[in-house]
Amino acid sequence: MFGLTENLEKATDETLMARSAKGNSRAFGILYDRYAGKMNWYFLRMLGKDAEKARDFTQDLFVKLAEKPHLFDTGKKFSTWIYTVAHNMCKNEYRKLSIRHHVNGEDIGAERTIADTQAKDPAMEVDKNTFEKMLEIELGLIDENHRTAFLLRYKEEMSIKEIAEIMGTSEGTVKSRLFYTVKKLSEKLKAFEYN
User: Closest by alpha carbon to 133, among 148, 153, 118, 152?
Assistant: First the structure.
């Protein structure tokens, strides 16, 4: 497909991953450039806006890709596959956090109190930045499956079918999660509705 003067910049993600599996570091570098920012953003949103943790997870993800490129399922789109791997990494982290929460008895309701107080304050300035902050807080309070479906659909603009593949569930389940999440968020963020 590509000659000696191959132009990897224009290659598909799947071709680049196949080249990476054969030891082509330039192909891997191009994939990294295409996806590192997206993956960092995804981890940032999924892991409570912890920038350091998001960077670490992004790094770990690409280390996995570099060390085990043969794990790529050539029957899938690369973008769907990499989000599936990222989603599974987040699920594992949630399990660890859940175990720590039960052991330490941590209170995760503090953010809820802040969100409720701000939402009830009629003097709160209704602008895009405030809305984004409130949306982040409310997304943080929704379970991981609903949050993931919402972020992949409305932030990453993926299709229902792609989200179902990533999450290993049916399209109907994805639609249900999206409906529930949008309904819940619209209730919580009612103060931002324009009359």
Answer: 118
What does the buried/exposed string (b/e) look like for 20-37 if buried means 16 or more CB atoms within 10 Å of the residue's CB? bbeebeebbebbbebbee
Instruction: Count Cβ neighbours within 10 Å for each residue of 148-180 and write b for 16 or more, e otherwise.
Output: bbbbbbeebebebebbbbbbeeeeebbeebbeb
Residue-wise pLDDT tens digits, 130-146: 777 777 888 888 888 89
Q: Residue 130: how many CB atoms within 10 A of its CB?
A: 14
Would the pTM count as exceeding 0.85? no
For residue 189, what are the CA distances in angstroms to 152, 173, 194?
A: 20, 24, 11
At residue 142, φ and ψ (nearest 5 deg) are -90, 150
Complete domains list, the chain, with CATH:
10-106 (1.10.1740.10), 108-190 (1.10.10.10)
CB neighbours of residue 105 within 10 Å: 7
Length of the chain: 195
Is residue 69 within 8 Å of 17, Cβ to Cβ? Answer: yes
Q: Do 21 and 42 touch, CB atoms closer than 8 A? A: no
Indicate if the alpha-carbon torsion angle 94, 74, 79, 57 is positive or negative: positive
Measured between alpha carbons, how far is 147 from 138 in angstroms, rounded to an integer? 10
Spatial separation of the C-alpha atoms in residues 149 and 177, rounded to whole Å: 7
State yes or no: pLDDT of 13 exceeds 90.
yes
Label residue 48 left, alpha or beta by phi (over 0 means left) and psi (-120 to 50 means alpha): left
